[in-house]
Amino acid sequence: MLNRLNSLFTTNPETPGKKVLYITANPSSVEGSFSLSVAKEFLDAYHAANPNDDIYHIDLFQSEIPFLDSEIFGAWGKLQSGTAFEQLTASEQAKVGRLGELVDQFLEADKYIFVNPVWNFSYPPVLKAYIDAIFVAGKTFHYTADGPVGLLTEKKAFQIQASGSVLSEGGYAGFEMAHRHLDAALKFLGVPSFEAVYVEGMAAHSDKTQEIKDKAVAKAREAAIHF
């Protein structure tokens, strides 16, 4: 279940709206981060336009996100062979149980906002671990005779991504693996709507840093109204 203690805004419980999961993968502070500071502007504009929606925050760098390892694969194998969850080791139960919590939390939300920097053409490893956690057959997708089919067909997603180089277009676009991977993952899971705002080029054009950020903020606030 989504934890209201992590809710970013106070809403009227008598007029519930959509549930929005705000997923950040950045170890920096809001003040020291282009992606987080632009995302804050997005959230403020979104909340103003959708005051009854609940926005919950999961900071991946401050949360327990198990990386898939031999212990988890071993535990899954035991469960598939008929072993009861209670018969797993304490460590196996903790890891598998946490993965279950993460995917259930993801399923409970109606909309997703991903916020990340680009590190060496992709996003921080903890975001990949989170994506691995939500790829669960029977919950977020299922197999059919014609191949896998995504089950999140009524969800929406948005991304705010920052990079020192311009990666969304131009000569380096082919190196960009963060947005492209997330886009592919969400399409696989059936999410029909995924948009993004890029804050990029601050290192390549250090004399235009504020201009780049201001333009991204304007795009983010406008996009938030329609998200």
TrEMBL record:
Reactions accelerated catalytically: N,N-dimethyl-1,4-phenylenediamine + anthranilate + 2 NAD(+) = 2-(4-dimethylaminophenyl)diazenylbenzoate + 2 NADH + 2 H(+); 2 a quinone + NADH + H(+) = 2 a 1,4-benzosemiquinone + NAD(+)
Cofactor binding, per record: Binds 1 FMN per subunit.
InterPro entries given in the database record: Flavodoxin_fold, Flavoprotein-like_sf, FMN-dep_NADH:Q_OxRdtase_AzoR1, NADH:quinone_OxRdtase_FMN_depd
Catalytic activity, EC: 1.6.5.-, 1.7.1.17
Keywords of the record: Flavoprotein, FMN, NAD, Oxidoreductase
Binding-site list for FMN: S33, F34, S35
Pfam families named among the record's database cross-references: Flavodoxin_2 (PF02525)
Domain Flavodoxin-like fold: 18-222
Essential cofactor(s): FMN
Main function: Also exhibits azoreductase activity. Catalyzes the reductive cleavage of the azo bond in aromatic azo compounds to the corresponding amines. Quinone reductase that provides resistance to thiol-specific stress caused by electrophilic quinones.
Subunit structure: Homodimer.
Family: Belongs to the azoreductase type 1 family.
Protein name (database record): FMN dependent NADH:quinone oxidoreductase
Organism: Paenibacillus sepulcri
Lineage: Bacteria, Bacillati, Bacillota, Bacilli, Bacillales
Protein encoded by which gene: azoR
